[in-house]
Amino acid sequence: MAETLALIDYGAGNLHSVANALRTAGAEAVTLTADPMVVRAADRIVLPGVGSFKACAEGLRAIPGLVEAMEERVFVGGAPFLGICVGMQLLATTGVEHGVTPGLGWIGGEVRLIERTDPAIKVPHMGWNDVVPTHHADGAALIAHGEAYFLHSYHFAADEGRDIAAMTDHGGGLVAAVARDNLVGVQFHPEKSQAYGLEMLARFLEWKP
């Protein structure tokens, strides 16, 4: 029987592009859903996100029981979880875009504006850039060295270095991926990262943390 993958639909992600990329990478049963019952039964969960941290966090929490279902399936059931772009940022404790907004608090950190230390550095960080994995025990096998497509103005400042799975450089180091136990989040867009992104998604589909 094919594994079921819940792609969380809360009105804040480029869902169809992500769904198509997951299917191309080998996913057989991708369900776009905001139904807590479907989430509780899923073998894997993917949380996309496009837009502001505040809007995404509020959209997610506006769906009754959805966050609780995700937490139950991930932390009690042990389902592998992937957050993409703002979906990765939502793992943090707080975000400061348009005011301080609580995140999921699954991985300690704050999502804050990229600092322009050099006038030549443009914000948002947009386009292809290197992904450099760190020595990481959890989720490290999912993140390979290569180039991925980024589009973001805010970045994940992790509280603990051990939660950082990869870095990129844009006028200084920025977190490209975080991971802990059965959680992994990527700041880049795998669905826009061609072969590199599809290979990463394929590894996630085989991941057994």
Explained architecture:
- By secondary structure, this protein is of the alpha/beta class.
- The protein has a single domain (4-206), classed as Class I glutamine amidotransferase (GATase) domain (Rossmann fold, 3-Layer(aba) Sandwich).
- Helix content is 26%, strand content 32%.
- The protein contains six helices and 13 strands.
- The strands form two sheets. Strands 2-1-3-4-13-12-11-8-9 form a nine-stranded mixed beta sheet. The protein has a four-stranded mixed beta sheet with strand order 6-5-7-10, covered by helices on one side.
- Helix 1 packs across helix 6.
- The longest helix has 13 residues, at 194-206.
- It is globular and about 50 Å long.
Report the count of strand segments.
13
For the record, the CATH architecture stands as 3-Layer(aba) Sandwich
| Assembly state (oligomeric) | single chain
User: Which CATH C-level class is it?
Assistant: Alpha Beta
> H/E order of the elements?
EHEHEHHEHEEEEEEEEEH
As for the CATH topology, it is Rossmann fold
Chain-averaged pLDDT: 93
User: Given the helix and strand composition, which structural class is it?
Assistant: alpha/beta
Strand content: 25-35%
Largest sheet: 9 strands, mixed
Unreliable stretches covering 5 or more consecutive residues:
none
CATH superfamily: Class I glutamine amidotransferase (GATase) domain
> How would you describe the shape?
globular
Cα-based radius of gyration, to the nearest Å: 16 Å
Question: Order of strands in the sheet with the most strands?
Answer: 2-1-3-4-13-12-11-8-9
The helix tally amounts to: 6
Binned, the helix content reads: 25-40%
Number of domains: 1
From the N-terminal CA to the C-terminal CA, the straight-line distance is 20 Å
